Amino acid sequence: MQENTQPLTGTKPLWQPKEMLIFLLVAFGLPFLMGVPLAIAQRAGSNTDVYPSAQMFYPAAGVMLAYLFTRRAALPRLFYGMYLVCTAALVACCIGAVAAPGDVWLAAVNVMMIVGSVLSWVFLLVAKKDRRAAAGLRWQGGVKALGYVALFLLLRTAAVFISLVPYGQLGEYLSYWTTLAPYSIILLLIPNFFLSFLAFFGEEYGWRYYWQPRMQQRFGPRAGVVLLCLAWALWHLPLNLFYYAPETGLQSFVSQIVTCLCLGIFFAWAYQKTQNIWVAVLLHYFNNNMILAYTGSAVISNQTVTWFDILIQAVVYGALFLPFFASKVFNKDTRASA
């Protein structure tokens, strides 16, 4: 069989049914399938911290398998292979966490994350430039591209401070920022990115690099982003119900919609402005990990989400991030070529 030699990006139409089916089955099928053992483990009181890390790998795994099965050329195969091995290993850890509960599975995931990230950097760097470019893995925009990350950190931090005002906790929280704790954590996050980037790459390579341009081409530049954000929120549903906030699952899911819509619009804007997937990966990484600096804790499970929390979140996030949807980068309609 003759191998398809068309590039991974820039092909029109982008929406290829067979390729898209493989992507969706992996990116969305796996989270909901693995939601069953997650629910069992949660009800049994077992440690379920391995599940969010594993789920973040599924979107990029869907992209890679879609490309491999549709015989795309110019693939960075060693990098893809390393990533898919890590994904399979994480799925095994999730199953193991149900079959033989214990903290060993989380420890194994942490080790695999570090080893996998380091080896993936090696395989990515030794790949030929044309293969990295064809797979959308080259850095673009120079140092200026980091400006979008800096802007996001400014807005995300402002959201934290503003959100505390209605609760009357701003004064107490400001005293926390007079200590060295948050600043030392922020400094540690920079080298930590290189040891844990795979999970955040996992989502952004699926959502922003692969699915966003296809959704925009099919439904329009703005409607495509909104639909992607809503689908992204739905993708979190098993975690909302059985990990983040099992006692307030509905509120957690509504909060997830607000988060994915507001942050997803900013992520989409930054990606379209730079066409640099690593900018989106950095945005996702800092969004998830800055919670350590903001709160001093990495615990994100068994939360209680109230409707008042959602109201404050919607107002603050909406005011800070939704204005980017008015950007001219969303004006060009690409549906005619779909």
Number of helices: 15
Cα-atom radius of gyration = 20 Å
Shape, please?
globular
Runs with pLDDT <50, length 5+? 1-11
Tell me how many strands there are. 0
Task: Return the string of H and E elements.
Answer: HHHHHHHHHHHHHHH
Helix content: over 70%
The largest pleated sheet is described as: none
What is the terminal-to-terminal distance?
27 Å
| Structural class determined from secondary elements | mainly alpha
Quote the average pLDDT.
93
Strand content range: under 5%
Please provide a written account of the structure.
With 338 residues, this protein is mostly helical. The protein contains 15 helices and no strands. It has helices at 17-43, 50-55, 58-69, 77-99, 104-126, 129-134, 146-164, 170-176, 181-219, 223-235, 237-244, 249-274, 277-289, 291-295, 307-321. The model is unreliable at 1-11 (pLDDT under 50).
Task: Give a brief description.
With 338 residues, the protein is mainly alpha-helical.
What descriptors fit this protein?
single chain, 338 residues, mainly alpha
Furnish the topology, listing elements before pairings.
Elements: H1 17-43, H2 50-55, H3 58-69, H4 77-99, H5 104-126, H6 129-134, H7 146-164, H8 170-176, H9 181-219, H10 223-235, H11 237-244, H12 249-274, H13 277-289, H14 291-295, H15 307-321
Helix pairs in contact: 1-3, 1-4, 1-11, 3-4, 3-9, 4-5, 5-9, 7-13, 7-15, 9-10, 9-13, 10-12, 11-12, 12-13, 12-15
